[in-house]
Please model this.
Amino acid sequence: MFNKILIANRGEIALRVIRTCKEMGIKTVAIYSTADKESLHVRFADEAVCIGPPASADSYLNIPKIMAAVEITNSDAVHPGYGFLSENAKFSEICAQYGVKFIGPTPDQIRKMGDKITAKETMIKAGVPVVPGSGGLLKDIKEGIKIAGEIGYPVILKATAGGGGKGMRVVWSDDEFEDAWNKARQEAKASFGNDGIYVEKFIEEPRHIEFQIIGDQKGTVVHLSERDCSIQRRHQKLVEESPSPFMTPELRELMGDAAVKAGKAINYEGVGTIEFLVDKYRNFYFMEMNTRIQVEHPVTEEVIDHDLIKEQIKVAAGVQISGKNYYPTMHAMECRINAEDVYNGFRPSPGKVTSFHTPKGHGVRVDTHVYASYTVPPYYDSMIAKLICKAQTREECITKMQRALDEFIIEGIKTTVPFHIQLMKNADFRNGNFHTGFLNNFELEPEG
Ligand code: MV4
Model:
């Protein structure tokens, strides 16, 4: 097992990793920017190294500075958390060159899934269903229009370097194609420095259902069931839950098998997520793979009753897993609490938190790095807490979530708590009747 892990991240996930390390008897090193000097991950780690000024490029994304911190603290492993360098193949490679274990996949595994066309080709070979489409880069508009005619409109143009919705355009007819093509290419070029575009059938009103998987270094891969992440706004997830209200035992077997095949196809090592689009007939299609621990991992932890960070660290250290899949025995839901003003287009609302009281009680969990008098810096992600509730049934889970949201006191900044309170009352949400477009038509009640 590792002696000392450096956590190359900040905020609640840095704290989350430190907690598990302590329970496993592993020493921890925090890194921090000057903006995070007063942060709890700095306080709770055994050692802390300041790595630079607030801007991410000069701190949490700066590989030379992080490697220097690894060296001076004599850390034998790095946990990248989510975001920042967690899916950076170069960082994984440099860690390997330094003889430091990157707690996550190999550079090759990251690259195979980072390029969407390569990922799709790999999935086709593995027998995992994918959305019908061009199957490769489009040469020009003419080829695109030809393929669109074959698969039938609507189609969607996607950037091969993409993910998270950037460089995507839906096209409904031949005469819209050229404009959409130009916009998708421009956006892809600007966002990823790669304007490679492919096309596929546009699945209307899909659900986003993802499977958690874990693989060990001996090639065993299992799934840990699904999370439904359909409640999103501009590709930012706001609520996740498990099981999906749309799931059936039969569909779980089919999708779970596909997720395991996907992991095995790249010999996946570590925790990862296979994202699927699911249409109203319960056809499912591989969308992307996330090669990191995700924000919403606690939802799975609650329904299968295992610490995913602990499992992640164990497989990184070479421990083998059993070959059996995990199934939910409870219902869990997570509301992301962001420092945002929901009444002003979810505009970021950083600043000093003057009072902070978290909900408590049976089946309630809050993962946060915030405390009263903490200042939310403007430089990073706006997520400041995750409220996770679990209960025997979805209905009880929502009731508990409502009770917990009512108990949350956060003063000094605006947060997404009022949004969640209203969502939990929505009849369609309560009935499990939603898809990825749900929030486009969700009307917020006036501030009151
Ligand atoms: C799609 C799609 C419909 N059909 N692909 C959005 C993010 C990117 N990773 C893929 N995305 C989508 N791909 C086909 N063929 C709809 C979306 C999509 C979406 C997917 C998941 C969650 C929220 C979404 C919101 C808008 C569009």
Q: What stands out?
A: The longest strand covers residues 221-233. Residues 131, 156, 163-165, 200-203, 206, 208, 232, 235, 277, 287-288, 436 surround MV4 (CB under 6 Å). Residues 132-201 form a domain with the Dna Ligase; domain 1 fold (CATH 3.30.1490.20). The chain has three domains: 4-103, 132-201, 207-441.
